[in-house]
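Hi, here's the filled form for the chain we discussed.

Project: internal
Contact: R.S.
Residues: 389
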Amino acid sequence: MLNFSYLSPTKLIFGKDTENQVGEEIKLYSKKILLHYGGGSIKKSGLYSRIVESLKEAKIDFIELSGVQPNPRLSLVKEGIKACRENHVDFILAVGGGSVIDSAKAIAIGTLYDGDVWDFYTGKALPVKTLPVGVVLTIPAAGSEASKSSVITNEDGWYKRSLNIELIKPKFAIMNPELTFTLPPYQTACGVADIMAHIIERYFTTTAHVDLTDRLCEGALKAVIENAPLLFENTNNYDARAEIMWASTLAHNDLLSTGRIGDFASHQVEHEMSGIYDVAHGAGLAVVLPAWMKYTYSRDVTRFVKFAVRVWNVENYFDSPERTALEGIQRMTDFFKQIGLPTTLGELSILDDRLEEMASKCTNGGTKTVGNCTKLNKEDVLQVLKLAL
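And the returned structure, exactly as it came back:
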């Protein structure tokens, strides 16, 4: 186990009707905020009205910026920065899923920065201050409600890049599983894949003696695997929704990263895919993860056997570790299919004509590698993408 420092400062407010507390929580930080959200779904569901009522009761003034898309755009972030500056906003409330939260984080750091906010996503600068951000979570998936991550897509070249820094963790996250009852099945499934990918990226490590976090990862995965199918049998299953929503947070608040170094190559490959083709992140991960596993399993077959046996209940074929590992990969792939996700690029209408471009973007023109368990160069990434066809 490696040395580590762990901080999880986000206040998590979990359970039924908790969105009604949002005004009282914000009152600790601000009297004038930006209310940031996606489309009209929060208005159709009545959530918008409840939040506005809570803000008014707490005497909090607000301006609004809607229109966040999946794979949130840099152009909207810049619009939000301009609005915050002009209206002297000092707090941002994100109501939605990971895209809205990531956009809010970007606006929060950009408002207090004299340069181009994109500098933070290309590594040209690091943010040193931010507006505080609060969250009302409606889509359990990205884990952005308590993570140090923000991912933004720049329409100029369709580059999708991430920022990872403790500074941007939200001050609070309100998490009511009831708010997820109306999610479409495909969006629900994409969220499940995203959650699982966050755990799997951490599980595959070369760090030795991490038994505790291995077991935490395995337990979280098994809970998701057992509860996810229940969401499609009864969309109003509160208990199953609660398990998935809590898993979303724990998968990406770095508790499962303590003392170990994860991989995250699959995430970086998928970012290029969704940056160019604008596919749902979870759907892209359901395609990339099995391909990455097939390409890399032989380099640490012992860990892939552990994954197969402990997570997917595969019989351990001691005379053929490869057979055990491959069966685990297949069961994961079958699970993604079971919940309605694609597992090939073809199912996403992605052909082979831009694989080279994706591999090049992922590795900065071939000048860097991605991943930690197995460091993938440009040719490796290309081969992973070919396995996903």
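Let me know if anything looks off before we file it.
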